[in-house]
Amino acid sequence: MTIDGTDCPINQKFDRTFYSHKFKDSGVRYEVGLCIRTGWIVWISGPYPCGSWSDLAIFRHDLKNQLLQNELVEADQGYRGDEKALEPNICFTQWQYDMKFILCAQHEHVKQRLKTFAVLQNRFCHRISQNNLAKHRICFNAAAVITQLNIQTHSPLAQVFYQEYI
């Protein structure tokens, strides 16, 4: 699978715990995983406060513990330093580099489809509390289900021919 984090803005007074460098304000982060062969959404973890949870910390907290001993994931530079995450620059041939570039583009395309939902693109209207984080998770999961159904029925992603190389 490929994994990457995505940030969603929230309505929160300035708090370093929630600070997102992507929009220079408060936000929550989700980790999204896609099946390499189908492009289907197969993993969601979150929400986590952007300021206190990096992509790598989220991965190590949850998904890494779910992987089998010999399983690895394709990831971007945000996962640098973990033996279970293959970084984009770990390539031995031009073909592998091109394949990783396509995988990254596919993942960004799915995150872009998720962000077409106003609830994820605009500031979440509720002040953040544990209860409202649960509401945000419900909204994110609903957007992911609709996006997934769209991928499966009307607008599939381009197929990626992936070959293991490690």
Characterization of this structure:
It is a single chain. By secondary structure, the chain is an alpha/beta fold. It is built from 5 helices and 7 strands, in the order ββββααββααβα. The chain has helices at residues 55-61, 63-66, 94-114, 118-121, 130-153; strands spanning 2-11, 19-20, 25-34, 41-49, 73-74, 85-86, 124-127. The strands form 2 sheets. Strands 1, 2, 3, 4 and 7 form a 5-stranded mixed sheet that branches. Strands 5-6 form a two-stranded parallel ribbon. Strand 3 (25-34) and strand 4 form a beta hairpin. The radius of gyration is 16 Å and the shape is globular. The two termini are 15 Å apart. The mean pLDDT is 86.
List keywords for this structure.
single chain; 166 residues; alpha/beta; two-stranded parallel sheet; 7 strands
Question: What would a concise description of this structure say?
Answer:
The chain is α/β, with parallel strands linked by helices and 166 residues long.
Could you tell me the mean pLDDT? Answer: 86
Radius of gyration: 16 Å
Shape: globular
Termini separation: 15 Å
Query: What portion of residues is helical?
Result: 25-40%
Secondary structure: elements and pairs:
Layout: E1 2-11, E2 19-20, E3 25-34, E4 41-49, H1 55-61, H2 63-66, E5 73-74, E6 85-86, H3 94-114, H4 118-121, E7 124-127, H5 130-153
